[in-house]
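User: Reviewer 2 asked us to show a designed sequence for the structure in our supplementary figure. I'm pasting the structure tokens here. Could you produce the per-position amino acids so we can include them in the response letter?
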């Protein structure tokens, strides 16, 4: 059984991701992403292309479903979402068209992303576990794909992202850590190394690469 290398919200920061993964040892660590690999950043299509190849090369790699994958796949496969398209989707689709990458194919790929990863000592999800009766229902706005509410403290370690923080800091009150450090906001992309006993061994934060910096006007 391998240890874990768990990566926070990438949001299209392709160059930062490649730098961060230089710290990953695939012979000893299973790679897990907490979701939100796309949208906001400059290279969503490239990130998707890269991670599909990485999953092909390393079969144990897991990418969890974040709210942005959920929005993307529902828009592409079910119905047009004007709010998402105007806020993030049009820009993401433009990146796909520029790369010449098939949008629907990636939507089908994302549809198969699991909602969470769990062992007897570890829970990884996009947002932390909420006080809700249906926490793993992807359409539930109070579930682990969406919510920003208080998080249940478990005996097991929780690793999650979703709500950007300046720094990733272990929170004893929830026995967990939020590793979304706002890569697309120009801060950093963070990964946590966790051993097979769910003990945090190291935190690595890679400052957002200059090519991944986003024009702030996009978010006004």
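Assistant: Here is a per-position design you can include in the supplement:
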């Amino acid at each position: 059984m391998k240890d874990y290398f768990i990566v926070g919200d990438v949001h299209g920061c392709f160059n930062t991701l490649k730098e961060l993964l230089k710290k990953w040892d695939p012979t000893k660590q299973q790679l897990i992403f907490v979701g939100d690999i796309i949208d906001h950043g400059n290279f969503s299509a490239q990130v998707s292309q890269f991670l599909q190849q990485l999953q092909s090369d390393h079969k144990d790699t897991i990418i969890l479903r974040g709210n942005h994958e959920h929005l993307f796949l529902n828009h592409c496969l079910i119905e047009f979402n004007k709010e998402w398209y105007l806020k993030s989707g049009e820009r993401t689709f433009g990146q796909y068209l520029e790369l010449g990458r098939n949008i629907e194919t990636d939507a089908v790929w994302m549809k198969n992303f699991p909602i969470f990863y769990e062992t007897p000592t570890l829970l990884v999800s996009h947002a932390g576990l909420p006080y809700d009766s249906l926490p793993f229902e992807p359409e539930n706005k109070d579930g682990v794909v969406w919510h920003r509410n208080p998080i249940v403290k478990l005996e097991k370690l929780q690793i999650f992202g979703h709500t950007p923080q300046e720094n990733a800091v272990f929170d004893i009150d929830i026995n967990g850590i939020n590793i979304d450090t706002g890569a697309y906001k120009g801060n950093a992309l963070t990964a946590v190394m966790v051993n097979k006993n769910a003990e945090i061994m190291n935190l690595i934060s890679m400052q957002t690469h200059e090519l991944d910096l986003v024009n702030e006007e996009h978010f006004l």
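For the response letter, you might also mention the following. The domain at 13-192 is CATH 3.60.21.10 (Purple Acid Phosphatase; chain A, domain 2). The mean pLDDT is 97.
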